[in-house]
Specification:
- The protein has 56 residues and is mainly α.
- The chain has a domain of 26 residues.
- 91% of the residues lie in helices and 0% in strands.
- The protein has 2 helices and no strands.
- Helix 1 runs antiparallel to helix 2.
- The longest helix is centred in the C-terminal third of the chain and has 30 residues.
- The chain is elongated and about 45 Å long.
- The protein starts with a helix and ends with a helix.
C-alpha cells in the first residue's frame, strides 16, 4: 500500500473517530464508518484505473 493511501486512510479514520465521538451515537458511528469504507474503496478503484491507463 502506498504511503499516500495509508495517509488518506489514517485521516479518514481520525475524522470518523472525532465525528463519532462528538456525535455520541453508535448508529451514527456505524453509518459514518460504512460511508468512509465506501469512499476509500472508490478511491482505490480510481487509483487502479488511473494506474492501468498510465501503464497500459
Amino acid at each position: 500500500m502506498s504511503r499516500w493511501l495509508r495517509q488518506v486512510i489514517e485521516r479518514k479514520k481520525a475524522g470518523a473517530d472525532s465525528k463519532a465521538f462528538f456525535g455520541g451515537m453508535k448508529k451514527k458511528q456505524e453509518a459514518l464508518m460504512h460511508y468512509t469504507i465506501h469512499e476509500l474503496e472508490n478511491e482505490v478503484l480510481y487509483l487502479k484505473e488511473r494506474k492501468t491507463k498510465i501503464g497500459g
